[in-house]
């Protein structure tokens, strides 16, 4: 790591206050080294900005805010893990190869919207993004959503609940069509599970480094407050 990177992290609030030598150079201690280790470890699980906020709060003595940020990350990860399970369950029940007709006829935009619990305008947005491909009635010109569209709409609803962007949903639906369904679905769910597992381990690793930093920081503050000092 370059000296400039250290200066940048110092300026961003990663480190506790530093002392200066008589010539004006910063003096870093093992406490500062552990602060950097904690930040880099936290960054893997929380992201750069969130890790910065955690370190800034800690270094100004506001550990309550730091704990809240950490807790919020775990709550969000648990919610995503639950959503992944819901998606897997929901998608497993969908036909990805031979769609089953819905009431023997295509659905209108209003009927499909009610079926999956979204606004009709949402379905039109999904169509614009390439997620849905409804056909038009030759007489009325109205959109008609056949079994393929119903399947894709249900998939899109679940993925959006999981926090995926429209372009990501469109990519998945496109790969699902191209692969015929089963392979794309399996790969997608496996990749999602791997990402969740990796993030869980990163959060644990970051917590361990951060706990070590808190211990050293508490000792440093106690030493500074002791009568002998």
Can you characterise this structure?
The protein is mainly alpha-helical and 229 residues long. It has two domains: 3-77 and 200-225, Multidrug-efflux Transporter Regulator, Chain: A, Domain 2 (Orthogonal Bundle); 98-179, Orthogonal Bundle (Multidrug-efflux Transporter Regulator, Chain: A, Domain 2). It is built from nine helices and four strands, in the order αββαααααββααα. It has helices spanning 3-12, 30-46, 48-59, 63-92, 109-116, 120-128, 147-161, 166-179, 182-225; strands at 19-20, 26-27, 135-136, 143-144. Strand 3 (135-136) and strand 4 (143-144) form a beta hairpin. Helix 2 runs antiparallel to helix 9, helix 3 (48-59) packs antiparallel against helix 4 and helix 4 (63-92) runs antiparallel to helix 7. The longest helix has 44 residues, at 182-225. Residues 95-101 have low confidence and may be disordered.
